[in-house]
């Protein structure tokens, strides 16, 4: 009783409540209690299902009285700690709801990661699943997270996805009494198989057995594994029978209600199916802006199925209101809608194009010497107006050919080197390209985690659009040189 009275007296003397101080049993000193905190880490993804889970988790933790720190993990080896990606990421995730935030990625200086060399040789004999975790093995703990740990009583680290576990284990070294809870979010091996993901060193597709083995080895370091459905739980339990497994069903509230589905049985010309993630949003927005609004609106009918409508509403996209009737939202049965003709284009370019074409155009305009003279492998592209023309031709085809997929391109294949030269010439400049030994340049790209960029620049990618041209009696109306001129010319209002 005397100890309790002393604690209450000290608390009152400094204007604190009794619950905010504590008595140290070994020293007899009265000290401030540190607030309860929790550390959550997950991939730095935007507007996807995982991101919605992160948001709800932050909300739940706050309602439980916990201070939250969310550590965003660079999703690929190509993203560094100083990458421009982080400005974009934070700008689009302001509603995450964490009390404090930070991010971790590899250093831009590859020589700061001598441990990478220790991963290369053994990693050559491991699967794609192992390599998905390599970049988190190179990451360091940001200073603001270290400060958060010093100022809070943290008993739990929540890790999303197995490939972030190496970083979660580094954090636990600062919190030896904390437990790691791994939210597996499906068996990732299944995704790698469906994507035919290739090993970055051998360029082979790993076997399901090898990938499952590596995924389970890494996942087994968690104290508790949380799964989102019975099938997922069954698979993890069969491989990790001695681990603790919990099955939960996360509920994701929708703050936006789709318009009611009316006259769903009526025929229509176009169907887009898209879930609410950022790449889908930008793709659908581009289609509405560049193809639908200037070319087809009022002439053809369009249905956009899926919860992509929520992002258009959340981002206050100006295209949402005029085309609101096109957004169907979630539907219980999709198969009754599926009478389709699919056009699959390569890289689409045009005025104000973003992504790979914008980066190439910037390089070409820079006037800097570029070691891309050897990028002569043939590649297919398509100008945005040619794509719009192809879509119009497909719709106009009578009778329509349903449930078929066609490849469509400009039909005038070129190479990365020739594309750079043409962009520079149309911009009244030059692109001084020179060659380096192929093997040397490839080694440099791979050493900096830029394997995919190497493939995009140097690997051939040619598609055959003749079947579509013959079926639709279609030829690209804009020639390659004119298309490049229109793409790099100063922006002007585009007519209907």
The CATH architecture of the largest domain would be: 3-Layer(aba) Sandwich
Number of strands: 16
Mean pLDDT: 80
- Name the helicity range: 25-40%
- Ends apart, CA distance between termini: 84 Å
Query: How is the biggest beta sheet arranged?
Result: 7 strands, parallel
Low-confidence stretches: 1-5, 13-19, 251-264, 491-496
- What is the fold-level CATH name, i.e. the topology of the largest domain? Rossmann fold
In what range is the share of β-strand residues? Answer: 5-15%
Q: Report the top-level CATH class of the largest domain.
A: Alpha Beta
The rounded Rg comes to 27 Å
The structure class reads: alpha/beta
What is the spatial order of strands in the main beta sheet?
A: 5-4-3-6-7-8-9
Q: What's the shape?
A: globular
Total domain count = 4
Total of helices: 20
Descriptive labels:
496 residues, alpha/beta, Rossmann fold, 4 domains, seven-stranded parallel sheet, three-stranded parallel sheet, 20 helices, globular
Structure description:
This protein is an alpha/beta fold. It folds into 4 domains: 2-32, no CATH class; 36-247, Rossmann fold (3-Layer(aba) Sandwich), CATH 3.40.50; 270-323, no CATH class; 341-488, NAD(P)-binding Rossmann-like Domain (Rossmann fold, 3-Layer(aba) Sandwich), CATH 3.40.50.720. The protein contains 20 helices and 16 strands. The longest helix is centred in the middle third of the chain and has 19 residues, at 278-296. The chain is globular.
């Amino acid at each position: 009783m005397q100890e309790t009275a002393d604690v209450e007296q000290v608390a009152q003397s400094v204007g604190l409540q009794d619950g905010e101080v504590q008595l140290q049993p070994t020293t007899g000193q009265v000290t401030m209690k540190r607030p309860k905190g929790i550390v959550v880490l997950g991939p730095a993804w935007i507007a996807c299902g995982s991101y919605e889970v992160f948001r709800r988790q932050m909300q739940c933790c706050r309602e439980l009285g916990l201070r939250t720190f969310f550590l965003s993990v660079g999703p690929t080896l190509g993203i560094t700690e100083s990458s421009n990606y982080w400005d974009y990421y934070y700008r689009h995730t302001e509603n995450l709801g964490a009390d404090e935030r930070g991010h971790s990625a590899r250093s831009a200086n590859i020589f700061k990661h001598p441990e990478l060399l220790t991963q290369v040789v053994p990693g050559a004999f491991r699967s794609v699943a192992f390599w998905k975790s390599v970049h988190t093995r190179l990451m360091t703990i940001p200073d603001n997270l270290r400060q958060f740990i010093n100022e809070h009583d943290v008993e739990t680290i929540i890790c999303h996805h197995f490939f972030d576990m190496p970083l979660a284990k580094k954090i636990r070294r600062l919190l030896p009494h904390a437990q790691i809870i791994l939210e597996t979010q499906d068996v990732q091996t299944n995704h790698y198989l469906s994507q035919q993901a290739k090993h970055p060193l051998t360029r082979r597709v790993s076997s399901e057995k090898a990938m499952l083995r590596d995924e389970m080895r890494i996942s087994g370091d968690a104290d508790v594994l949380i799964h989102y459905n019975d099938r997922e739980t069954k698979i993890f339990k069969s491989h990790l029978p001695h681990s603790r497994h919990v099955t939960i069903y996360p509920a994701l509230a929708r703050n936006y209600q789709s318009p009611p589905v009316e006259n769903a049985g009526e025929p229509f010309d176009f169907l887009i199916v898209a879930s609410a993630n950022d790449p889908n949003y930008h793709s659908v927005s581009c289609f509405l802006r560049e193809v639908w609004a200037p070319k087809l609106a009022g002439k053809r009918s369009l249905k956009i199925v899926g919860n992509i409508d929520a992002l258009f509403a959340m981002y206050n996209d100006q295209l949402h209101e005029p085309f609101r009737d096109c957004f169907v939202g979630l539907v219980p049965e999709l198969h009754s809608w599926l009478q389709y003709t699919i056009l699959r284009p390569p890289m689409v370019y045009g005025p104000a194009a973003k992504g790979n074409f914008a980066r190439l155009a910037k390089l070409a305009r820079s006037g800097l010497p570029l070691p891309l003279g050897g990028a002569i492998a043939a590649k297919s592209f398509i100008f945005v107006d040619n794509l719009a023309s192809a879509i119009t031709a497909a719709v106009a085809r009578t009778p329509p050919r349903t449930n078929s997929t066609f490849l469509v391109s400009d039909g005038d294949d070129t190479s990365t080197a020739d594309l750079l030269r043409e962009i520079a010439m149309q911009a009244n400049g030059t692109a001084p390209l020179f060659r380096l030994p192929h093997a040397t340049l490839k080694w440099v790209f791979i050493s900096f985690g830029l394997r995919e960029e190497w493939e995009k620049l140097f690997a051939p990618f040619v598609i055959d659009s003749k079947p579509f041209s013959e079926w639709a009696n279609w030829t690209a109306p804009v020639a390659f040189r004119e298309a490049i001129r229109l793409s790099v010319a100063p922006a002007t209002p585009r007519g209907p």
